[in-house]
Design a protein that fits this description.
Layout (H helix, E strand, L loop, with lengths): L4 H16 L22 H17 L3 H16 L4 H13 L8 H17 L5 H10 L16 H10 L1 E4 L5 H13 L5 E2 L22 E3 L10 H4 L8 H8 L4 E2 L4 E5 L6 E4 L16 E4 L2 E4 L2 E6 L9 E4 L34 E5 L4 E4 L7 E9 L8 H4 L15 H6 L8 E6 L5 E5 L2 H11 L5
Antiparallel strand pairs: 1-11, 2-3, 3-5, 4-13, 5-13, 6-12, 7-8, 9-11, 9-13, 10-12, 14-15
C-alpha cells in the first residue's frame, strides 16, 4: 500500500487526536508503516508537521509518544523509496512498540534506538535528522536555571568541612505547603519516649529538658501531598551536587522521614564518622574519600530545613572536618560535654538544604524555641552502595507501592536498587533527562547464553 505525504499527515493528526483523548492507549507506530516506492517528501513540510505534533503532544503530557511517533513516521515517509529502509523500520517496530504508559527506561532506550536507525539509513536527509535529534533531546524544565555541575567552590567547601549548605532550594511557598502537609499528618508522629529509643544520654547537653524527638514517616506515600517531598529526589539544584559527591546513578538509600522537636526536646548525641567517633573503627559503609579531585561519600545525608535554625536555636550540628579524622573522639565530646567550641550548629533558613557525608561526625542539639523544629531527612548513596534494605524489603521487593505514584522519570531512576551503572542503569543527565548506561548487546547476549539470565 502506498501512502502520499498528505496521507501520512492525516494519519499523524488522527493518531495524535486519539492519543490525546486516551482512546487508544496501546496503539503503536506499526499503523504508520508502509512501503511506498513512489513517495517523495519535503523536509521543510515534515519539520512543520513535527513542530505541530510536538506542541500538541506537549500540551497533553505526551511528549515521549510524540518523540517516538514523529521520528518513526518521518523516517517512514522519508525513506519509503527504498525497500531496505522500509524493512529496517519494520524490523525496528516489531521489537520496539511503545505503549502510552511505558516506563522512562524504555522511552529513552527507544529514542536512542530511533536515532541509531536514522543514522543507519543513507537516504535520510541530514538536516531533518538533526532536527529529529534536537526534538528528542530536550531540557527538563527548571534545569536551565541551575548549575550543571558541582562548582569548584562547592567541591572545596564540602571536602574541607564534610558538609555543605545550599540556600533556598525550596521556595517559601513550597516550605509553606510542606508544613501544611505535615500538619495534616501530625497525629501520626511518634515520640521517642522510651529509654530504648532515646538518642541522648540523660543529663547531658543533647538531652534537653525531657521531651523525646518526634518522627513522621511515609512522606513519599501521601499521594498528591507527597509531591513537594518527591522533588528532592531529583531537584535540579541538587542533582549536580549528588553527581559530584555520589556519582551518576545515585540512589535513595533510606526511607525519608520528618524529624520534629518541640521546645526542650532532646537532640542526638554525636555519631558517624569515616572512623567511628565512639569506637575508633573504620566505617566503610559511611566513609568519605577524595582521590585526585574525585569525591565519594558512601552515604550522604540530605537535611531539608522546613523551619529556621538561627544561631542558638539547636537542631542539626556537626564537627567540621571530622570526615577526615583518624581517631575516635575524646570521652565526653560525643555527648556535647567537652570541646563544645568544635561542635557547630549551622545557621539555616527554611528552604535551605544541608548535605553532609555520613562520614562526618554529626548530631542534633536540644531545641530551645517555642515553635516546633522540622526537617525532612533523606539519605542517598552511590549506585553500587547500600546501607538500608527497604528497597527490597517491601512485600517481597521494591519500595512501598505508593512511593512510585506521580514520579517524574528522573525521580523514579533514584529509586533503583544498587547495581553497577553499566548494567542498564538509568542515569540523570545534566539537562534533567534520563539515559540508560549499558554494555554492548553482544555482551548481554553472551551472558544470557552463559548464565541463562540477562545479567550476571
Amino acid at each position: 500500500v502506498a501512502f502520499t505525504l498528505q496521507q501520512v499527515q492525516v494519519l499523524l493528526v488522527l493518531m495524535i487526536t486519539l492519543l490525546a483523548s486516551s482512546a487508544l492507549p496501546q496503539l503503536t507506530t506499526s499503523a504508520f508503516t508502509a512501503t511506498a516506492p513512489g513517495v517523495t517528501t519535503r523536509s521543510s513540510s515534515l519539520r512543520f508537521i513535527a513542530s505541530s505534533v510536538r506542541h500538541r503532544f506537549a500540551s497533553h503530557n505526551y511528549l515521549h509518544q510524540y518523540q517516538y511517533f514523529a521520528a518513526t513516521a518521518t523516517t517512514t515517509a522519508t525513506t519509503a523509496t527504498t525497500a531496505t529502509s522500509s524493512s529496517k523500520l519494520l524490523a525496528f517496530q516489531s521489537q520496539n512498540d511503545v505503549s502510552t504508559n511505558a516506563s522512562l527506561v524504555s522511552r529513552r532506550h527507544h529514542q536512542s534506538t530511533v536515532r541509531r536507525y536514522l543514522s543507519s539509513i543513507p537516504e535520510m536527509d541530514s538536516t531533518l535528522g538533526q532536527d529529529i535529534e534536537k526534538m528528542t533531546t530536550t531540557t527538563t524544565p527548571g534545569y536551565e536555571n541551575y548549575p550543571l555541575e558541582m562548582t569548584d567552590d562547592e567541591r572545596y567547601l564540602f571536602d574541607l568541612n564534610g558538609y555543605l549548605i545550599i540556600r533556598n532550594v525550596l521556595s517559601s511557598e513550597e516550605v509553606r505547603l510542606a508544613n501544611e502537609i505535615i500538619d495534616k499528618h501530625q497525629q501520626q508522629m511518634i515520640e521517642r519516649k522510651e529509654a530504648a529509643l532515646r538518642n541522648a544520654v540523660k543529663g547531658t547537653n543533647f538531652y534537653g529538658s525531657g521531651p523525646g524527638r518526634k518522627d513522621l514517616g511515609g512522606v513519599l506515600e501521601w499521594g498528591e501531598d507527597s509531591r513537594v517531598f518527591k522533588t528532592i529526589l531529583a531537584h535540579p539544584r541538587l542533582v549536580p551536587l549528588f553527581h559530584g559527591i555520589l556519582g551518576k546513578g545515585y540512589r535513595m538509600d533510606h526511607l525519608p522521614f520528618v524529624i520534629a522537636q518541640d521546645k526542650g526536646a532532646e537532640g542526638f548525641q554525636l555519631h558517624g564518622g569515616t572512623v567511628d567517633c565512639t569506637s575508633g573503627q573504620y566505617n566503610p559503609h559511611l566513609a568519605y574519600t577524595c582521590h585526585n579531585g574525585f569525591i565519594r561519600s558512601a552515604l550522604l545525608g540530605c537535611n531539608v530545613m522546613l523551619t529556621d535554625h538561627d544561631p542558638g536555636f539547636g537542631g542539626f550540628c556537626v564537627v567540621p572536618g571530622s570526615h577526615k579524622s583518624n581517631f575516635k573522639m575524646p570521652i565526653g565530646m560525643v555527648d556535647g560535654e567537652k570541646y563544645k567550641e568544635f561542635i557547630i550548629q549551622p545557621a539555616t533558613k527554611a528552604g535551605d538544604v544541608v548535605l553532609f557525608s555520613e562520614g562526618t561526625v554529626h548530631g542534633a542539639m536540644a531545641w530551645t524555641q517555642e515553635s516546633q523544629r522540622r526537617v525532612c531527612l533523606y539519605r542517598f548513596s552511590p549506585a553500587t552502595n547500600v546501607y538500608g534494605r527497604s528497597y527490597f524489603g517491601h512485600e517481597g521487593g521494591g519500595w512501598p507501592d505508593k512511593m512510585y505514584e506521580d514520579l517524574t522519570d528522573a525521580e523514579r531512576a533514584v529509586l533503583e536498587p544498587p547495581y553497577a551503572n553499566r548494567l542498564d542503569r538509568p542515569e540523570i543527565m545534566q539537562n534533567g533527562e534520563v539515559e540508560i548506561s549499558s554494555r554492548s548487546e553482544r555482551k548481554k547476549n553472551h551472558d544470557q547464553e552463559l548464565f541463562g539470565t540477562k545479567y550476571f
